[in-house]
Amino acid sequence: MPSLVGSEMCIRDSGNGAGRTGNFQDADFFDPNNAAARKEREELAAETLASALAWLAAGGRVAIFDATNSTAQRRAVIRAECEKAETQILFVESVVLDAAITDKNVLQTKVMSPDFVGIPPDVAVADFLRRIEHYKAVYQPVSDHEGSFIRTVDAGRRVEVVNLRSTLEAN
Prior knowledge:
With 171 residues, the chain is of the alpha/beta class. It has helices at residues 35-57, 72-84, 99-110, 121-138, 167-170; strands spanning 3-4, 7-13, 62-66, 91-95, 149-153, 158-162. The strands form 2 sheets. The chain has a 3-stranded mixed sheet with strand order 1-2-3. The protein is globular and about 45 Å long.
């Protein structure tokens, strides 16, 4: 079990459920105009968040909810669920402005991810780059009024820490 600041933690990744239909989900699944896929993505995110909150309710201290929470609306839903569960939240936003970093990341991590098992590397790269374009189409940066967050820019070239409120967050 991973740990953070000496606290046991869990990682819940909504992407692990994207293949629940049993088939490869190409970039069209992530198109914000694809209503059926959007509904399924929202259901996956809700299930994943519920799993993380259940783990915390059972005595866990730190849960990482890994999902593409690129809109203020999605983050508001997450914040509301965490508030209902009386759980603190810290958003972590990763912004990449340098295309070379994006290209390197896609080649080193995405091609070998479970999302692309059995998919030729060139097809996987092209598909993931299309997925990124869908994310960019709706992306809204995390803002100060959304609570605590950390923003990394270009793989840590710059790090912004905003509104930290707990000792666990600050350690």
